[in-house]
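Database export, one record per block. Field names are fixed; values are copied verbatim from the stored entry.
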Amino acid sequence: MSRFLCDSMKALAPYTPGEQPTEKKYIKLNTNESPFPPTERAVKAAEEAAKSLQLYPELDGGKLRSAIAESLGVDRDSVIVTNGSDEVLNLCFKAFCSPKSPAAFADITYGFYSVFAGYNCVPYEIIPLKDDFTLDVNDYIGIDKTVFIANPNAPTGICLPVSEIEKVVSGNPHNVVVIDEAYIDFGGESCVGLVKKYPNLIVTQTFSKSRSMAGARLGFGVACPELINDLYRLVYSTNPYNLSRLNMAAGLAAVEDADYTRRNCAEIASTRESFSRELKALGFEVLPSLANFVFTRKEGISGHELYLRLKAEGILVRHFDSPRINDWLRITIGSREDMDTLVEKLRLITENLL
């Protein structure tokens, strides 16, 4: 780092993204991307929008914001559209966290939460998951902190029912609760319906996973209009044109083609269940997932070693070098052909290692 970097940023530990290799072709199961392309309607809409790139895009999400609101059954003023759901999360750390209202989140969860806390100079409390990697909502009730919960959680895939989420929201009436639903479309139940009941709840979702648009960088948040206004206050103070014409046009087309998204999600969920059964047949432990990935380990085999062996075989999965989970792998659900290939490679590798 340079000698000019300010002191508050010198201690920042940046987020570590999943590998995006270019040197060779891999079966890529490490960053929870969809195995399906975006709807053709989104591609065509982006192509048409590209003809007007000399003009600034619409402010505050334009037609896309209205379409998302309609699809969710909420008012337009209850939606913010952002450059990926990461932008919503970062805005929430900036807007609703402070020394008087520190952040709180699990020890095993989305790695960006601690980065956003550090970036915004926000104190935070890390609350350990239970031994079985489930989250105990009682740990979050009445803690007088701004709560962040990924549901389904990443990297575990475990999902809380809406009734449990509601306990956290109702149990923290003086603090904002942020529920990160990046993976909700693969089998979980969204708590978006609770935003009309609770003025302290923000729900975030993304176009990256279920809508096959990770490359478009598009996300949104849902909350009462007052909270949404708070977030837009920050957007207009930093980057009012935070969305391009291309991603808004593609996003609008994706929302309008909801059947395509539902079919893809159903196929991914079906593949996830069959893949989980095959892993268990090979002696792997697999956590119950409602996401587009599974979290798994094989007793007696190092997670890092298994990751390296798979990479050598041309298959990328995600390994986390953290003490509680360093023997576990997070594996994205790809096409059925990809998963069949992976199962066979795992069979051969584990036979050689044990």
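Remark 1: The mean pLDDT is 96.
Remark 2: The longest strand covers residues 201-206.
End of record.
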